[in-house]
Amino acid sequence: MHINEAAKELGISARTLRHYEVQGLLHPARDQNRYRRYAAADLRRASAFAT
């Protein structure tokens, strides 16, 4: 799932997800064109920060 889809599902902004990544809290995979790909485990982890 791409960053905008993940943000929408979590009810937070894409910028917040990027902030979590900069802080070292999330490490989403990247696809061939370097877009972030969020797995279910990434979403569970992010939801713990968002609450």
Q: What does this protein structure show overall?
A:
This protein has 51 residues and is mainly alpha-helical. The protein has one domain (3-50): Orthogonal Bundle (Multidrug-efflux Transporter Regulator, Chain: A, Domain 2), CATH 1.10.1660.10. The chain has three helices and two strands, in the order ααββα. A two-stranded antiparallel ribbon has the order 1-2. The termini are far apart. 18% of the residues are buried.
Class based on secondary structure composition and strand pairing: mainly alpha
Provide the domain count: 1
Please tally the helical runs, counting DSSP H or I stretches of 4 or more residues: 3
The coarse silhouette is globular
Strand content: 5-15%
Mean pLDDT: 95
Uncertain runs are none
**CATH fold description:** Multidrug-efflux Transporter Regulator, Chain: A, Domain 2
Q: SSE string, helix = H, strand = E?
A: HHEEH
CATH C-level category = Mainly Alpha
Alpha-carbon distance between the two ends: 21 Å
Give a quick account of the main beta sheet: strands, pairing sense, barrel closure: 2 strands, antiparallel
Largest sheet: spatial strand order: 1-2
Summary of the model, kept short:
With 51 residues, this protein is mainly alpha-helical. It has helices at 3-10, 14-22, 40-50, and strands at 29-30, 36-37. The protein has one domain (3-50): Multidrug-efflux Transporter Regulator, Chain: A, Domain 2 (Orthogonal Bundle), CATH 1.10.1660.
Question: How do the strands and helices of this protein lay out in sequence?
Answer:
Layout: H1 3-10, H2 14-22, E1 29-30, E2 36-37, H3 40-50
Antiparallel strand pairs: 1-2
